[in-house]
């Protein structure tokens, strides 16, 4: 019998792996609804839905290996990163999903609240927070909505060799959103691969906006990461991303 491996577990959701099956358990069934529908609409490889019995969603494992991990050098080639950029472009060119994503105002309100907490509780130096808040302002501009993954971490993109994207996983945050938010999430902590991703994406983008999303995302998630047992100060992770902007 295959042993059960805990992939991730916290108070909101858990993912278990048993052989080639992933079992996702989520307290919020809306996220599962979004994930299932988004995977059915996305024009990129996604996991196969095996069955669903709330609160559990069973998915088949995708082949290949993850593009990398935050805080570690990526084993993937520049061509693989470019292939990821091309896959993201196909997603962004697809028809919009029928549900809206977070507004610019919501991102800004969350950012201001988290920056205030980071400074008031002495979690990060004031000058580090203030400088990155200034950089994050570039992301807070009007954007034309596209079909976004919404949580496009490198651990969610699987490749086989140099140019085959075998699967994109974890679609619970998919929505109408800013294309550059996806590109920033994909390259967070791996800025050296931004040129490769953009070569595959195939169009010019505003790099100041991508840097703004790097700062905004890192500032906004530190409290959540700490409260759920993750370490944003680990080498190469969110705090280092913020320090790189100084």
Automatic annotation (TrEMBL):
<dbReference type="Pfam" id="PF01636">
    <property type="entry name" value="APH"/>
</dbReference>
<dbReference type="InterPro" id="IPR002575">
    <property type="entry name" value="Aminoglycoside_PTrfase"/>
</dbReference>
<dbReference type="InterPro" id="IPR051678">
    <property type="entry name" value="AGP_Transferase"/>
</dbReference>
<dbReference type="InterPro" id="IPR011009">
    <property type="entry name" value="Kinase-like_dom_sf"/>
</dbReference>
<protein>
    <submittedName>
        <fullName>Aminoglycoside phosphotransferase family protein</fullName>
    </submittedName>
</protein>
<feature type="domain" description="Aminoglycoside phosphotransferase">
    <location>
        <begin position="42"/>
        <end position="203"/>
    </location>
</feature>
């Amino acid at each position: 019998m295959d042993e059960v491996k805990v992939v991730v577990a916290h108070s909101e959701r858990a993912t278990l792996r048993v052989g080639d099956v992933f079992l996702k358990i989520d307290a919020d069934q809306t996220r599962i609804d979004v994930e299932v529908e988004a995977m059915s609409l996305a024009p990129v490889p996604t996991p196969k839905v095996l069955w669903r019995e709330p609160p559990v969603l069973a998915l088949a494992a995708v082949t290949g290996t993850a593009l990398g991990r935050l805080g570690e050098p990526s084993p993937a080639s520049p061509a693989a990163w470019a292939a990821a950029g091309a896959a993201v472009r196909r997603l962004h060119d697809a028809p919009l999903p029928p549900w809206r994503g977070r507004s610019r105002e919501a991102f800004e309100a969350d950012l201001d609240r988290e920056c205030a907490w980071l400074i008031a509780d002495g979690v990060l130096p004031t000058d580090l927070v203030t400088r990155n808040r200034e950089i994050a302002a570039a992301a807070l501009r009007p954007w034309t909505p596209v079909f976004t993954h919404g949580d496009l971490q490198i651990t969610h993109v699987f490749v086989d060799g140099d140019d085959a994207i075998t699967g994109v996983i974890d679609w619970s945050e998919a929505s109408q959103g800013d294309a550059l938010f996806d590109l920033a999430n994909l390259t967070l902590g791996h800025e050296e691969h931004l040129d490769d991703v953009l070569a595959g994406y195939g169009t010019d983008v505003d790099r100041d906006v991508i840097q703004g999303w790097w700062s905004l995302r890192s500032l906004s998630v530190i409290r959540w990461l700490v409260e759920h047992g993750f370490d944003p100060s680990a080498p190469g992770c969110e705090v280092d991303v913020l320090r790189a902007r100084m």
